[in-house]
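step: validate -> pass
step: tokenize input -> pass
step: predict -> running
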Amino acid sequence: MDRTAPARADRPGASRLGRRMLDELRRTAAIFAYLWTVFGILVLHEWIVLSRHGIDYRFYGLAFVNAWILAKVVLVTEHLDVLPRWAGRPPIYRIVTRSAGLALILVAAYAIEETAIGLVRGRSLADSLPAIGGGGMRGYAAIGVIMAVALVPYFTFRELGRILGRERLRALILSEPAPASPSGRGGEHR
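step: predict -> pass
step: emit ->
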């Protein structure tokens, strides 16, 4: 006899909490996978550029660690809807604004994280600041632009999921498309 089943049935809040935690875990994993892919490609690009100049570069999972930390930052920022003024406007406004805003947050979070690590290791504040994108404000701006552009597909997917519904979007992306009708649509049939 299973005594845990009635206890769960008596506590619908616990079941709801479990589903919500599982949903948050899935969202974090999806964000992590996307960021890990983006960071991994950027690190791979850096390795290729440096190897052309004979500079040895090893990237011991830095993309993995940063993706995990920043995925949590993304998850928290997604709960803050600071864009109510874009309601009723085309989704591109929300996509571009969220991509640019989150890129700024991610670059700042990375800079703060690296500075804190440097300070913990006994370096001065000036020595702890990371030289992002070659250093200086131009480097920070360059990485911010790269991150903003890299985040556009993520927020496009999120907005389409919000508009169409997650399940419908998932079905559109993962299902075999239905064959086109013989009459064609919108001039597509030739």
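step: describe -> The two ends are 65 Å apart (CA to CA).
step: cleanup -> pass
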